[in-house]
């Protein structure tokens, strides 16, 4: 991604300063995005941000330490610095910027694993085939790899692990904001089921804050197996059950259900199937709590409008606006009651049984 000055050069005829990038600069920023993704993937793999935690360092030293060539590393860092990721504080010497700090490991707000997931080969193999989705409405991953997105993960365990790490990291950033904005206290003494909860980051954070809630973590077997050590290490084994299965067939019984970024993976028909299975398995007073992006109207910039393209090409799902969520719930026998904004990109969406 090329950098653009905050204020472009003035028009020679008018003397008026043009705010922001010129149209051509704006266009190139978008068109060169694949280069930025690849560069970010490299610096994450090399842990460059972690190596700069204690202050600026020269490229020669970083290259020797990471086992790469000095000149190519310099060119990658120079390009990223031009977009505000790292800063060249002296010739061939780089330091962290606020954006680059988010690539450091161990931070609660780290985006290191998410960026690494977005830089994986599966994205570079699928997105050039976007026209297939435009012409057919189908996903691209099946065209390229011959299997669905989640079948691809099951067959490619290394990529699956990178994906699960990214989702766990994203949960670590989202769930504190959700817990600040939404009170789960009404569930004390009851059972909360985390549907497709991955490694259990969302559920365990809720259970730690609300020790009177009993939890059930539900996902595919090979996924939840990776959650058991975490649950044990947190001392939650007696408070949290781990179970596996296919949410398109049935889900465990519970008093309430939470899903983070799950419904957006599926089209309306499949999302409705999941919600209907929850409706069937739950008591009359059950609630569903979603952590999802809610698309902003019009031209308002919104992360969800880009995540929506990921959904289109990989799993076949979609991001939704408030009206679309209300309609989705209604079609499964629920009524949306609250849309709570948080300090994260996701909202807390609450629904209750309507019948």
List keywords for this structure.
single chain; globular; 355 residues; disordered N terminus; 18 helices; 3-stranded antiparallel sheet; 7-stranded mixed sheet; alpha/beta
How far is the first residue's CA from the last residue's CA?
Answer: 51 Å
Strand content: 5-15%
The main β sheet shows up as:
7 strands, mixed
Query: Reading side by side through the largest sheet, how are the strands ordered?
Result: 6-5-4-7-8-10-9
Structural class: alpha/beta
Tell how many strands the DSSP assignment holds: 10
Output the helix-strand order.
HHHEHHEEHHHHHHHEHEHHEEHEHHEE
Q: Please mark out the parts with pLDDT under 50 across 5 or more consecutive residues, or reply none.
A: 1-14
Radius of gyration using CA atoms only? 22 Å
Helix content: 40-55%
- Mass-distribution shape: globular
Number of helices: 18
Rounded mean pLDDT score: 93
Describe the protein.
A seven-stranded mixed beta sheet has the order 6-5-4-7-8-10-9, sandwiched between helices. The chain contains 18 helices and ten strands. By secondary structure, it is an alpha/beta fold. Helix 2 packs across helix 5 and helix 4 packs across helix 5.
């Amino acid at each position: 991604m090329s950098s653009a000055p905050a204020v472009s050069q003035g028009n020679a005829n008018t003397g008026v300063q043009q705010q922001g990038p010129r149209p051509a600069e704006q266009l190139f920023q978008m068109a060169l995005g694949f280069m930025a993704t690849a560069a970010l993937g490299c610096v994450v793999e090399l842990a460059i941000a972690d190596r700069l935690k204690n202050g600026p360092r020269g490229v020669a030293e970083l290259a020797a330490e990471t086992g790469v060539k000095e000149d190519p590393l310099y060119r990658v860092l120079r390009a990223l610095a031009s977009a505000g990721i790292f800063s060249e504080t002296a010739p061939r010497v780089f330091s962290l910027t606020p954006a680059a700090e988010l690539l450091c490991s161990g931070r609660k707000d780290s985006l290191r694993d998410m960026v690494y997931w977005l830089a994986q080969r599966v994205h570079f193999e699928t997105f050039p085939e976007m026209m297939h989705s435009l012409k057919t409405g189908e996903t691209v991953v099946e065209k390229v790899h011959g299997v669905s997105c989640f079948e691809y993960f099951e067959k490619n365990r290394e990529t699956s692990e990178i994906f699960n790490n990214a989702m766990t990291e994203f949960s670590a950033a989202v769930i504190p904001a959700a817990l600040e904005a939404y009170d789960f206290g009404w569930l004390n003494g009851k059972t909360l089921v985390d549907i497709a909860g991955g490694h259990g980051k969302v559920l365990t954070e809720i259970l730690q804050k609300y020790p009177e809630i009993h939890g059930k973590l539900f996902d595919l077997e090979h996924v939840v197996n990776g959650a058991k050590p975490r649950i044990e290490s947190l001392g939650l084994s007696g408070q949290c059950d781990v179970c596996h299965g296919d949410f398109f067939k049935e889900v465990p019984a519970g008093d309430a259900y939470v899903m983070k970024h799950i419904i957006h993976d599926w089209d309306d028909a499949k999302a409705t199937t999941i919600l209907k299975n929850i409706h069937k398995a739950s008591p009359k007073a059950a609630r569903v709590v979603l952590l999802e992006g809610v698309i902003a109207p019009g031209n308002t910039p919104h992360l969800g409008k880009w995540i929506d393209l990921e959904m289109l090409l990989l799993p076949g799902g979609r991001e939704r606006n408030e009206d679309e969520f209300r309609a989705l719930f209604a079609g499964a026998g629920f009524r949306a009651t609250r849309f709570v904004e948080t300090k994260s990109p996701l909202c807390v969406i609450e629904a209750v049984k309507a019948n």
